[in-house]
Specification:
Elements (H helix, E strand, L loop, with lengths): L2 E5 L4 H11 L6 H8 L4 E7 L3 E10 L2 E9 L8 H15 L4 E7 L3 H9 L3 E13 L2 E11 L13
Parallel strand pairs: 4-5
Antiparallel strand pairs: 1-2, 2-3, 3-4, 5-7, 6-7
Helix pairs in contact: 1-2
């Protein structure tokens, strides 16, 4: 069984280890600690036998943002990202956020499908947003979820 828990800066090493399984380079524990010490930032950690997923969000002044989302390769295609996303949206609503935003690379088909299925809609395009190295840049789609119209049943509470 996979358990989702709200965690703070004390879990930065674990969050970083999961993040590095999904991104190269991943975010360091120091970067994650700094973010988690910032106003409105919260994280959820997914744990089965091992830590296997994480999401980091910010909810400030009525607006929430997914800062990053990562699922370790062995745990993929088991609805974990869907559950992390839904739980984070629930926490954002509890923090009085009315809408949730994120940026995703236009070539990240898995994440685009995930967010579209979760009810996010395309709200804009940031040209050349991601630096892939060697001068290659990729556009980002800005996506938005209306947390007021999305039903509460879709957003189970995290621990
Ligand atoms: C994107 C990512 C978070 C998805 O995690 P996951 O736990 O495997 O996703 P889920 O099992 O919850 O999938 C939910 C939906 O997302 C879509 N999806 C997920 N992975 C997909 C893939 N490889 N190809 C196509 N669609 C995919 C599907 O629509 C899926 O629903 P379905 O299984 O009913 O078809 C994971 O692949 C990952 O960590 N990737 C690297 C980091 C990243 O891109 N993070 C997001 C940045 S914005």
């Amino acid at each position: 069984m996979t358990r989702l828990s709200a965690v703070g800066p004390e879990a930065a090493d674990t969050l970083a280890a999961v993040h590095w399984q999904a991104f190269t380079p991943g975010w360091s524990a120091a970067e994650l600690t700094e973010l988690l010490d910032s106003p409105g930032v919260f994280a959820l950690l997914a744990q089965a036998e091992e830590p296997c997923g994480m999401i980091l969000c910010r909810a400030v002044a009525g607006e929430a943002e997914i800062l990053t989302l990562a699922v370790a390769p062995p745990a993929r295609r088991q609805d974990l990202a869907r559950d992390l996303d839904a739980a984070a949206a629930g926490l954002a609503r509890q923090a009085k956020a009315a809408e949730m935003f994120l940026e995703v690379a236009t070539d990240n088909i898995a994440a685009l499908r995930l967010y579209e299925q979760a009810g996010f809609q395309r709200a804009g395009l940031r040209r050349g947003y991601y630096d892939r190295g060697d001068g290659v840049r990729t556009d980002a789609v800005v996506m938005r979820l209306d947390l007021n119209t999305a039903g509460p049943a879709a957003y189970p509470k995290a621990d």
